[in-house]
Specification:
The structure holds three protein chains of three kinds. Chain A is an alpha/beta fold. Chain A contains 15 helices and eleven strands. Helix content of chain B is 25%, strand content 43%. Chain B has a five-stranded antiparallel sheet with strand order 3-2-1-4-5, with no helix packed on it. Classes of the chains: A alpha/beta, B alpha+beta, C alpha+beta. Strand 3 of chain B pairs antiparallel with strand 9 of chain C, so a sheet runs across the interface.
């Protein structure tokens, strides 16, 4: 397929990896922010091609993993209500809340449906005027354009039976939180290419400057990741800390302006709780007041929920790059994809699930 | 985060006031929303996430990057 | 499955409980959850030496009268549930015949007879039933099996998805044939009879829920004629398995577990149609886990691998057959994949239901 197979060329990838070996002279710790990149690295075994001096740590960029437990519990409660069709991206169905997951809600009679796009949820609302259709609007800056458009569309179509359960997170505040932590080990960043395709990377030079870290906007194919690591290592070896774009075929400095405009029209900044990490100021988006009638938390009175998290799970430390999945005592023993203790074992992007799936024999 | 895949625009039309299009992913097609890439033309490649085109793919940039990496691979052989 | 159930008493996280207490869709996905359900609920209750083999069907010996010799018989049963009932390349009737014929064939059995049970939903259009039965008839002719007994039940509207079909098949195992999931030996070669994922993606597209179109047909087909052609060439076929639900990855894991061996497969040797690859990219699936209904895995002695491969390649159902890996001595029952980059990673069983992912 065009724009995929070129970036999976084994010879080119190995050549770039060799160049990394020639460039590096001391150990460096680089974080790939995005779980999609973690997934690619494990799936293609790219770590095996890297010199030992490159240590990759895995960041919090998995929306399924970081959606707060309280929000999952709210989703479970709303999805259990009669007369509700609860729609969600497929990834969220297996994420454990305090008392089960969306699959178990379905097993007890809830109408939970997987959709590919928020616009599919709009279609379901149009086709089921006597039901309340709720869409679980989770994600980073990448799903925000789609989620925002569903609100605009519901508004334009006069749909009164459609609402969103919003739990949006943003990458730059998380980068601040990770780098600002005294225990941070991260010396360079591979920034999330698809987030940047929407938002551009104008927010990043100030981060690179403030914390003295090079940042490389990086794509998701093996060659993209190899190139992202090479550019970051070059900067680290030179002592520079600029923002570079290794995903220029998709990402521009400004990003997608029409998408940003629609996001701003519908959402506003808010503090957001990240599962396993905690509250990060201004790291989320919520619906603006003028769209509050599309807010599922206003429409459905869900009793106050006291979320309870596994005490064994170290997902928070993993998501901050402080520990790796294999450092967790529950990893692959009490915690497996069939019986996850934390969301990082659920999502195919979660670091624990990626390790479990692709790397257990090593 | 965010599984986004490249595809080719094979049709552009409007539904309920939204700019929509049919995308060919290589033997598999799906309708996606093109509202955020109003400049899109049939034949353009775009990157799709949750049923929305996030951006058009810049062929010039793609070729330049590949040429650059190709240079590295030639160095590799010479050494 | 050798791991005990994780003990989680005392933990705050109550996650694993619901899945233990109720059936969820993942239990029917053919992956690890199905495997756990079978081993923990079914085989423990019906424990006997034949069932314990854990193969696609049971193999038993029936003594033939006063002769000393006994005849080995393979029996397998399968219930068929599919939405939609008709899809490109097949329908529930063809699936019901082929699925059971193939399970008998995977034991080395030569399928002769089928029985069938129908659960019909009140209100089902008779014309639909006629079409399904006609499809079963023509598939039975193709597979050279006879349907010799049957049963029909009707349930209230809303209690079934149109119709469900169970079939049970019986076949005779020729002398000298010894095929089981336990027989893979280090040094053996893994052959795959063709492209993977065609059925799963074709049905998913036909279902329409994810609103995509694919130019694909299900591969559903009876494989017994193909198996017979292979056995005519050599009896050194150790394992046969049709990688249905759970896909190639799950079947290989089951074999590794049964035989106590490692399996190493090569990514660039596994045939995948471009449309299947494209659908998997779009939905975030891995073709290794997508269902097939007309493909087989053969694990054979190294010496006969090329011969069997060429036999497959001249058969209409095996034209894209390929050697995709080998059996290793790895003690950990692991399936590993050598990527196109020369790196090695693990290939696990399917976990739960396959879900389209956004991330």
């Amino acid at each position: 397929m065009k724009y995929l197979s070129e970036y999976r060329d084994a010879q080119l990838v190995r050549a770039v990896m060799d160049e990394i070996s020639r460039t590096i002279h001391q150990p460096w710790v680089i974080m790939e922010i995005c779980g999609g990149q973690t997934h690619s690295i494990m799936k293609y075994g790219l770590e095996q091609l890297l010199p030992a001096d490159v240590e990759l740590v895995h960041g919090p960029g998995c929306p399924v993993c970081v959606t707060s437990l309280e929000m999952i519990d709210k989703a479970l409660a709303i999805a259990s209500l009669p007369n509700v069709i609860f729609t969600s991206y497929g990834d969220m169905l297996r994420v454990p809340g305090s008392s089960g997951d969306l699959f178990s809600v379905r097993a007890t009679g809830g109408d939970v449906r997987v959709v590919y796009s928020s616009l599919d949820a709009i279609k379901i609302a149009q086709e089921n005027p006597d039901k309340q259709v709720v869409f679980f609007a989770i994600g980073f800056e990448t799903t925000a354009p789609a989620n925002a458009m569903s609100v605009i569309q519901a508004h334009n179509l006069g749909l009164e039976n459609f609402s969103l359960l919003v739990s949006h997170v943003r990458v730059p505040p998380a980068m601040h939180a990770i780098l600002g932590s005294p225990s941070s080990r991260v010396q360079g960043f591979l920034a999330a290419g698809h987030v940047c395709s929407v938002m551009g990377f104008w927010e990043y030079p100030s981060i690179a400057e403030k914390y003295n870290v090079p940042i490389t906007i990086t794509g998701f194919e093996p060659l993209d990741i190899a190139q992202g690591i090479l550019l970051t290592i070059r900067q680290l070896e030179n002592g520079s800390h600029a923002v570079e774009n290794a995903y220029a075929r998709v990402v521009t400095f400004d990003g997608n302006r029409p998408a940003q405009k629609t996001i701003r029209q519908v959402f506003e900044d808010c503090a957001q709780a990240w599962r396993g990490i905690g509250m990060i100021p201004l790291s989320g988006w919520r619906l603006k007041d003028e769209f509050s009638n599309y807010d599922a938390t206003n429409r459905f009175q869900v009793q106050s929920i006291k979320p309870s998290e596994s005490q064994l799970c170290i997902a928070g430390q993993i998501l901050q790059g402080l520990k790796k999945p294999v450092n967790c005592p529950a990893y692959a023993t009490q915690c497996t994809p069939e019986h996850p203790l934390g969301a990082t074992m659920v999502s195919s992007e979660g670091a624990c699930a990626a390790y479990y799936r692709y790397g257990r024999s090593q | 985060m965010c599984l986004a895949v490249p595809g080719k625009i094979v049709e552009i039309y409007e539904t309920n006031g939204l700019l929509m299009g049919k995308i060919d992913f290589g033997g598999v097609t799906r309708e996606v929303c093109l509202s955020y890439v109003p400049e899109a033309k049939v034949g353009d490649y775009t990157i799709i996430h949750v049923g929305f085109a996030l951006n058009l793919i810049d062929e010039q940039e793609a070729m330049e990057t590949l040429a650059l990496l190709d240079e590295i691979s030639k160095q590799d052989i010479e050494e | 499955m050798t791991d005990p159930l994780p003990t989680i008493e005392g933990l705050v996280c109550p996650v694993p409980l619901p899945h233990n207490e109720r059936i969820v869709l993942g239990h029917g996905s053919g992956g690890r959850m199905s495997f756990d359900l079978i081993t923990k609920i079914f085989t423990s209750s019906f424990d006997n030496p034949i069932l314990k083999q854990g193969d696609d069907g049971g193999v038993l010996s029936i003594s033939t009268g006063d002769q000393a010799a006994s005849q080995r018989v393979a029996i397998s049963t399968d219930s068929h549930v599919v939405t939609p009932l008709f899809f490109p390349g097949g329908d529930i009737g063809k699936l019901a015949v082929c699925g059971t014929v193939n399970d008998v064939a995977m034991m080395g059995g030569n399928p002769l007879y089928l029985t069938t049970g129908f659960i019909l939903e009140e209100g089902l259009d008779l014309e639909i039933l006629r079409k399904v039965i006609e499809s079963m008839r023509s598939s039975a002719v193709e597979a050279k099996v006879q349907v010799i007994a049957g049963d029909t039940k009707v349930v209230q509207k809303g209690k079934a998805d149109g119709l469900y079909i169970n079939t049970t098949g019986l076949g005779l195992i020729p002398d000298g044939v010894n095929i089981s999931g336990h027989n893979a030996r280090p040094g053996d070669v893994v052959i795959l009879s063709g492209t993977i994922g065609d059925h799963g993606i074709a049905v998913l597209a036909a279902r329409g829920e994810l609103d995509f179109e694919a130019q694909l047909e299900s591969d559903v087909a009876p494989l017994n004629n193909l198996v017979r052609a292979m056995l005519d060439v050599s009896k050194a076929i150790h394992v046969l398995r049709d990688p249905t639900r759970g896909g190639l990855a799950t079947s290989l894991n089951e074999i590794a577990l049964q035989s106590g061996v490692g399996i190493n497969i090569y990514e660039n040797a596994i045939p995948v149609k471009p449309a299947v690859a494209a659908a998997c990219e779009m939905l975030g699936f891995d073709p290794l886990y997508v269902a097939n209904e007309g493909k087989l895995i053969a694990i054979v002695a190294n010496e006969v691998a090329e011969q069997i491969l060429s036999t497959l390649k001249v058969h209409p159902l095996g034209q894209e057959a390929a050697i995709i890996g080998k059996i290793t001595e790895h003690a950990g029952d692991h399936v590993t994949l050598k990527t196109t980059f020369g790196t090695t990673r693990m290939v696990d069983m399917l976990s739960g239901e396959m879900l389209p992912r956004i991330c």
